[in-house]
Amino acid sequence: MNNRPLLVQALNREPLARPPVWLMRQAGRYQASYRAIKSRHSFLEICRDADIAYEVSMLPINEFDMDAAIVFADILLPLEGLGVTIDFAPGPHIANPIQKPEDMENLVVSEYDAYSVVPKVISRLKDTLSCGESPKAVLGFAGAPWTLACYLIDHGPYKGFQGVPVFAEKHPQAMQTLLDQLTTTTIGYLAAQIAGGADAVQIFDTWGGLLDEESYRRFSLPYITRIINAVQTANTPVILYVNGSNHLLETMEESGARCISLDWRTEPSEALARLKAETVVQGNLDPVSLFAPPALREQKVRSMLESFSARPGYIANLGHGILQETPESAVLELINQVKNYS
Ligand code: CP3
Predict the structure, then answer these.
(1) Strand 280-285 to strand 259-261: parallel, antiparallel, or no bridges (unpaired)?
(2) Which of these, 28, 255, 26, lies nearest to 137 by C-alpha position?
(3) Is 70 in the pocket of ligand 1 (CB under 6 A)?
(4) Whose CA is closest to 128, among 232, 63, 216, 58?
(5) What's the CA gap between 324 and 286, in Å, rounded?
(6) pTM of this structure
(7) pLDDT value at position 159?
(8) Of 103, 149, 159, 307, which residue is the least packed, with the fewest Cβ within 10 Å?
(9) Which atom, in ligand 1's list, is nearest to the CA of 151?
(10) Which atom belonging to ligand 1 lies closest to the Cα atom of 25?
(11) Burial class (CB in 10 A: 0-12, 13-18, 19+), 103
(12) Is residue 115 scored above 60 in pLDDT?
């Protein structure tokens, strides 16, 4: 009897009767149960309390029977260890962003510690989910240094995050120092999650797609590669997600990530033709599809599953985080459709 989590088997490219399924940002405001907890605690209170963070991480497991739990936290939390003041309203706000290279001198170089709640939650999830006939995987995560820098650096007069590539070109040395520091912090953060029992960890490079390939090779890939070299082992693979990554698939693969998580704009057949056979693929349903009428939704999910699941090493997921107003019934139907697929 094989009682390892389905997601772990998929990451090892074992042939499976159906793909495992989980959703990025699967615990959150689209759930009535989460909103009830949020009416009593702020987002940061939830993240800082191991009992509540555990409870919230379990909500999508209890309600939708996902094949993996992702620890409830945020990519920006480790920045607090650098002396950065973060708030969520609910979008992230940084009280002391970097506006000029000298501001980096205010960053504290500290050992990872204040966040020990995250590995603690992972251990508890692992205790709950690793036993029984059909164990579930436990996932840790972190932001890519480039994406963390996008939140840390003031965007100046630019809309969106365009001010960050501008800062990077104007101050390449300072940018490198910052990305190095974020890389060191992230390695410690992910290593603690893996020590806590994470079956795999995902790196979110949400803003990596802003960069063309050449800039990605300077500002994001080397740091992600360093993190992966430091933390990925045979038993704890790394999943790499970059939003807007159609022009970066082969470059992402050079990081050594075991699994590439595709956004919704890349055609499955194109991705499979471009990626190596040994790369595990995750994705890539458009989160907006969950608002479509049932028949269209079902067709989109079937089309995704037919395209990807012919080969071993596939994890069903969305192409980006689930949207706030997503109907819970559509989530349940999606999960059930994947589970009944053969
Ligand atoms: O997947 C999960 O269920 C685990 C929880 C999780 C959160 N954030 C909780 C959260 C994960 C994996 C993240 C990752 C994250 N955080 C990313 C990368 C993924 C992505 O969506 O691209 C990014 C860019 C962030 C930064 C961040 N945190 C933003 C942009 C926001 C505001 C946008 C939003 O969704 O509201 C947050 C706040 C945040 N992180 C919330 C949650 C549940 C909402 C806060 C609340 O409930 O008030």
Answers:
(1) parallel
(2) 26
(3) yes
(4) 58
(5) 14
(6) 0.97
(7) 83
(8) 159
(9) 26
(10) 1
(11) middle
(12) no
Residue 43 identity: F
Q: What is the pLDDT of residue 70?
A: 98
Q: Which residue is it, tokens 């090493």? A: 313
What residues contact residue 60 under an 8 Å CB cut-off, 6+ apart?
22, 23, 26, 27, 31, 66, 69
Averaged pLDDT for residues 128-146 = 95
* 74 CB near ligand 1 (under 6 Å): yes
Q: How many CB atoms lie within 10 A of CB 216?
A: 23
Distant-in-sequence, close-in-space partners of 145: CB < 8 Å, separation ≥ 6: 178, 179, 182, 183, 186, 220, 223, 224, 227
Q: Do β-strands 86-88 and 92-94 pair in parallel, antiparallel, or remain unpaired?
A: antiparallel
For 141, the token pair is 């995560």
Name residue 30's amino acid: Y
Per-residue pLDDT tens digits for 173-208: 999 999 999 999 999 999 999 999 999 999 999 999
- Each residue's pLDDT tens digit, 29-64: 999 999 999 999 999 999 999 999 999 999 999 999
Residues 69, 59: Cα–Cα separation, whole Å: 9
Nearest CA to ligand 1 atom 27: 92
CA 1-4-30 angle, to 5 degrees, is: 130
